């Protein structure tokens, strides 16, 4: 019997499986495996006779290494996330939920890059040219020299790029692209993978930068942007909460710059506006000295950002108490609760715990531990912390505190925004010129010295 040529790929992460299964082995998502026809094989060949490949000793590369040229868009929030502007011949993936503003961001960026001298082509596979023009008008960039194409056939796009020779091509979106040598439907894992591979290799060979837009998908039939993450140099995700105007552009992979860098924007009636001082924005709606509210001095990439943690602790009506987290890791919350319970003797059993980071920010730093602990205790005791105080520091499982990195930058940002005190682990190195009054955690909520003194 002929062997089946079908395989199954996960539409969320691209992981290949020989057999169908309910759950992906790669990422653990359920119901994401879809049938895939294999890619058409190239001409039968052995490695013998191939002439293109050759080996180059690493040392020979010495001498002609130059830093890749970069172009700034002038949108600082974008340039910083890219690692200092757009690198020539690089491939960038911009992922995000449908409707979050990716097309808006990229059309605005395309116009800025074009204004700064790049030849830019924007290819939309989703919208008709009249729609894109209307959007351009709304954004006030209709006069910019960006070339516009509405095309989904990969072959036509490559021909266009070959003829036009742009410095930057934006492909919106990769899920709408369609390669005629792959038999599955547009948006399937093999189509998305093939199209992304063709486009990025073509762009690198021709020396043009390419930006691929990828929708984060919920249903299994359409491949998500994770499928192409490994093919590109830079992966940016555009995030935001529904109902909030803030949008955060986050670098999760960058061969040319720092990851975890964020750019903050606000969606307005005339497109995205950059927010140069995100701390002020994230703290804008803060009420003074509320129980459960704590300001955390964090670092996002290379920049200090202040954010407010809000906690609510209430008696649980159910036998199993609830833990709900928005903007922080739920596993980390469980750890902090366990430390408070077993090391400090402060039980949370029978209490529902809700934790939220205001403004739709997602905090990933362990330095937020202490801020979370402070918010939980303040909520539990119904006692507000002083409103002009920031909190940061890491908590270990033993209940000791560890100083966070970049203490000085955090304190400076807090000072700039009018805070006068900070609660930090006692060994924190603050640097000269720190005028903030430093307090230790145990000063505040009557902690025992042994448990929360610096380790
Ligand atoms: P869009 O860029 O089309 O999202 P994506 O490409 O990620 O799917 O943005 C869609 C939303 O943004 C839409 O709900 C309308 C809103 N929007 C504004 O609020 N202001 C604007 O100037 C524009 C162009 C869009
Ligand atoms: Mg779009």
From TrEMBL:
Swiss-Prot/TrEMBL GO biological process terms: recombinational repair
Gene Ontology CC: one annotated term: cytosol
Keyword terms of this UniProt record: ATP-binding, DNA damage, DNA repair, DNA-binding, Hydrolase, Metal-binding, Nucleotide-binding, Stress response, Zinc, Zinc-finger
Chain ranges of the RecA family profile domain: 67-216
Region annotation (Lon-protease-like) ranges: 352-455
Domain statement: The middle region has homology to RecA with ATPase motifs including the RadA KNRFG motif, while the C-terminus is homologous to Lon protease.
Its biological purpose: Plays a role in repairing double-strand DNA breaks, probably involving stabilizing or processing branched DNA or blocked replication forks.
Protein name: DNA repair protein RadA
Origin species: Halocynthiibacter styelae
Lineage: Bacteria, Pseudomonadati, Pseudomonadota, Alphaproteobacteria, Rhodobacterales
């Amino acid at each position: 019997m002929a062997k089946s040529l079908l395989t199954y790929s996960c539409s969320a992460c691209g992981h290949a499986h020989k057999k169908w299964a309910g759950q992906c082995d790669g990422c653990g998502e359920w119901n994401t495996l879809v049938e895939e026809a294999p890619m058409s094989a190239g001409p039968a060949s052995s490695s013998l006779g191939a002439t293109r490949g050759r080996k180059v000793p690493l040392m020979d590369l010495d001498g002609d290494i130059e830093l890749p040229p970069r172009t700034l868009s002038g949108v600082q929030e974008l340039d910083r996330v890219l690692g200092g502007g757009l690198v020539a011949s690089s491939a960038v993936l911009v992922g995000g939920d449908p409707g979050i503003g990716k097309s808006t961001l990229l059309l605005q960026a395309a116009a800025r890059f074009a204004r700064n001298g790049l030849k830019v082509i924007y290819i939309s596979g989703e919208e008709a040219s009249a729609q894109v023009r209307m959007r351009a008008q709304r954004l006030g960039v209709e006069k910019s020299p960006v070339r516009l194409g509405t095309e989904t056939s990969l072959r036509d796009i490559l021909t266009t790029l070959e003829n036009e020779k742009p410095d930057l091509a934006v492909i919106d979106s990769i899920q709408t692209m369609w390669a005629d040598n792959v038999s599955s439907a547009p948006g399937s894992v093999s189509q998305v993978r093939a199209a992304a591979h063709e486009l990025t290799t073509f762009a690198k060979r021709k020396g043009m930068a390419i930006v691929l837009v990828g929708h984060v998908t919920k249903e299994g039939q359409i491949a998500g942007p994770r499928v192409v993450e490994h093919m590109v140099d830079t992966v940016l995700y555009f995030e935001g909460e529904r109902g909030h105007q803030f949008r955060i552009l986050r670098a999760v992979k960058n061969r040319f710059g720092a990851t975890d860098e964020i750019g903050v924007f606000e969606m307005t009636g005339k497109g995205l506006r950059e927010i140069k001082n995100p701390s002020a924005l994230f703290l804008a709606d803060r009420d003074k000295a509320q129980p459960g509210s704590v300001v955390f001095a964090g670092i996002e990439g290379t920049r200090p950002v202040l954010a407010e943690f809000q906690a609510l602790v209430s008696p649980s009506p159910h036998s199993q108490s609830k833990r709900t987290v928005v903007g922080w890791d739920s596993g980390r919350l469980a750890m902090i609760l366990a430390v408070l319970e077993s090391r400090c003797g402060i039980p949370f059993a029978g209490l529902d715990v809700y934790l939220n980071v205001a403004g739709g920010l997602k905090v990933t730093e362990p330095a937020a531990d202490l801020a979370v602990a402070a918010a939980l205790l303040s909520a539990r005791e119904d006692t507000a912390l002083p409103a002009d105080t920031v909190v940061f520091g890491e908590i270990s499982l033993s209940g000791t505190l560890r100083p966070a990195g970049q203490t000085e930058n955090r304190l400076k940002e807090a000072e700039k925004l009018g805070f006068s005190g900070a609660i930090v682990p006692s060994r924190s190195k603050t640097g000269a010129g720190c005028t903030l009054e430093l307090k230790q955690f145990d000063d505040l909520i009557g902690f025992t010295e042994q448990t929360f003194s610096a380790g």
